[in-house]
Amino acid sequence: MRWISSLVIAFATYSRIPMPPVEWSEENRRYALCFFPLVGLAVGADMALWLWLCGLLGIQGFLRGAVAATLPILITGGIHMDGFMDTCDAMASWQPMEKRLEILKDSHIGAFAALGCGVYLLLSAGLYSECALRDAPALAACFLLSRAMSGYFSIALPPARPGGMLAGFSATAAGKTVKITCALYFFVACLLIGRRAYFVLPAALGVAVYAKRFCMKYFGGITGDLAGWFLQMNELFCVSAVVLGGKLL
Predict the structure, then answer these.
(1) How many distinct structural domains can be found in the chain?
(2) Residue 198 belongs to what domain range?
(3) Which has more pLDDT, 9 or 165?
(4) C-beta separation of 36 from 8 below 8 A
(5) pLDDT at 96
(6) Residue at 17 is within a domain
(7) Is residue 25 situated within a structural domain?
(8) What pLDDT, in 10s, does the model give residues 24-45?
(9) pLDDT of 248 above 90
């Protein structure tokens, strides 16, 4: 029952998929991050359904890409894109670390957040417009992979803001179990990607190396917003690698 409650809490936190009510106790939250990557499979399943409908109805080009780019936001409620946008604003401020952390907490949207979101969605729409149903397993793997790596980072890096939501999850999480589970998800994602792993894995690992340095240098650790930024960046580069790999293989 505890594992089921952790699963429900993970989906209730990181998606807008309706979940039954459970007690948000420390014990129930302990393994929530273990199930976080499964939200990526839900996104991948919806992406596959949309690409199947596109093939059935002959939908091509921009419409296919635009809808596909919005699906992850609709399913997750934009929680990760919110972190990406806050990070854009924080970095554009050119302020000291303490001020950047304050900007991450600010609920208001700045010009650079809007610009960053617009550029991200435009690039995503362009990439997804090049995808078809045959790409669905590799795309689902990208959503799984990005969340597995984000979950691992959330435990492995020190919290930059001890009072934040992510710090609360990390403090109650079974750290070793979360790391092992995320590593298993990573392995499953590699199997789903198939031959395109030659392109996707270097992209994912390259983003991870940069993100670790970025978070520690500019923020002194990880926060929920930075985990969201990392997830979004990882997803964008992995999807780019899927599209590139599909054209070269």
Answers:
(1) 1
(2) 37-248
(3) 9
(4) no
(5) 87
(6) no
(7) no
(8) 777 777 888 889 999 999 999 9
(9) no
